[in-house]
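Subject: for your reference before the review

Hello V.,

The reviewers asked for a structural picture of the protein, and I figured it would be easier to keep everything in one thread rather than splitting it across files. Below is the amino acid sequence we used in the manuscript, unchanged from the supplementary table.
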Amino acid sequence: MRRASGLLGMLFISALIWGCGEKLTEEQLRAKALDFENKEQWAEAAKMYERLVKAYPKSTRAAETLYRLGITYANNLKDFSRAVATHQRIVKDYPNSNYVKQSTFMIGYLYANDLKDLDKAKTAYQQFLQKWPTHELASSVQWELDHLGQDISQIELQLGDTPADKPASPQK
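And here is what came back from the structure prediction:
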């Protein structure tokens, strides 16, 4: 009798623990993530996006979810290393998605502007131009490459303007 009640008690505890890990649908997880975003609860939104991709890796929206996660890491949590890793997951795991080009650009951008790893930025930008030389982002990628490592305040604008704090060069 004692053995049976012990077994019954363990089954009850197991059921409680198993029941607490509620299985939400993809739509429910996405709605929760968006709700956290709307409340500007960025860490919770990131966790929910991670949970969403883990639960539904073959979803038609998995790459989109990772892209939102990467942007959340970069823009809101300022976790640039995780942002790069998330965009790299898109490139590796979802090579045919519509987000691969933007993610490849973002990898270069984050390396150049936030992580200050110019060699990795250059590699990412060059890969972008090799794969998609006519893409609408190609001119931005080329501009980034041309000005890699330069302080934006020292770069003359494409239209011939000079930064306000730098006097124009005299004409000869």
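For the response letter, the relevant points are probably these. The longest helix spans residues 2-20. Residues 7-20, 165-172 have pLDDT under 50 and may be disordered.

Happy to draft the paragraph if you're swamped.

O.
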